[in-house]
């Protein structure tokens, strides 16, 4: 009885695979490869970051605050000096100079607390060069700083620069794959039409 059931199930699966389209067969094969599926989600996430970079980045590429040049990353906190808070925040930072080495360094100012705001208003931008907006996914109140990965030599937010850089990197990859696909398609069509002398 069990052998007969297995035979019937295998026959049904074989018939389904025989009748399936090429795209469906490729999807079944891909779905079995968990690492490939996970990689696909990562790549899709990176392309979403590239597409909506202006909205996702806390600041724009033009936004610079030279007084915070080389500022270190600001820590997200849930506990302040006066107790636990229900929403993450960052302390303000201020620059000081070592009187002996004259090197500039930054210290946290626990008197200035800036809660992280969702859909915060910030520097204006044009989404895809078409729509004007000043809404960012997250940010702090005006006058505060949010350098989750620190700042560069011009006081520009490094996280925002990485988000914008993702667009360039992913576009180069997409263009490279597209060119390879088009060239391969043209060469393959010519090879199939004119015979094997093109291959040689």
Could you explain how this protein is built, in words?
- The chain is an alpha+beta fold.
- The protein has helices at residues 2-19, 22-32, 34-51, 53-56, 158-194, and strands at 77-80, 83-97, 104-115, 117-127, 131-139.
- The protein has a 3-stranded antiparallel β-sheet, with no helix packed on it. A two-stranded antiparallel ribbon has the order 4-5.
- The mean pLDDT is 86.
- It is elongated and about 80 Å long.
Beta-strand proportion: 25-35%
Q: Which spans of ≥5 residues are poorly predicted at pLDDT below 50?
A: none
Structural class: alpha+beta
- First-to-last CA distance: 58 Å
Q: Which bin fits the share of residues in helices?
A: 40-55%
How many separate helices?
5
How many strands, which pairing sense, and closed or not: the largest β-sheet? Answer: 3 strands, antiparallel
Rounded to an integer in angstroms, the radius of gyration calculated over CA atoms is 27 Å
Overall outline: elongated
Counting DSSP E segments of at least 2 residues, the number of strands comes to 5
Strand order in the sheet with the most strands: 1-2-3
Q: What does the average pLDDT come to?
A: 86
Order of helices and strands: HHHHEEEEEH
């Amino acid at each position: 009885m069990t052998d007969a059931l297995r035979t019937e199930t295998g026959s049904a699966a074989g018939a389904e695979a025989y009748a399936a389209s090429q795209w469906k067969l490729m999807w079944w094969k891909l779905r079995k490869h968990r690492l490939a599926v996970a990689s696909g989600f990562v790549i899709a996430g990176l392309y979403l970051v590239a597409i909506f970079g202006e909205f996702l980045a806390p600041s724009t590429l033009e936004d610079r605050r030279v007084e915070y040049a080389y500022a270190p990353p600001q820590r997200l906190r849930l506990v302040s000096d006066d107790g636990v808070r229900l929403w993450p925040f960052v302390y303000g930072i201020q620059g000081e100079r070592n009187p002996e080495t004259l090197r500039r360094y930054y210290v946290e100012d626990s008197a200035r607390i800036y809660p992280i705001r969702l859909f915060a208003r910030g520097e204006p931008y044009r989404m895809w060069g078409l729509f004007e907006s000043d809404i960012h996914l997250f940010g702090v109140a005006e006058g505060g700083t949010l350098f989750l990965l620190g700042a560069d030599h011009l006081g520009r937010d490094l996280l925002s620069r990485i988000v914008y850089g993702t667009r360039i990197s992913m576009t180069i990859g997409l263009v490279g794959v597209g060119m390879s696909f088009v060239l391969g398609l043209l060469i393959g069509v010519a090879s199939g039409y004119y015979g094997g002398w093109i291959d040689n």
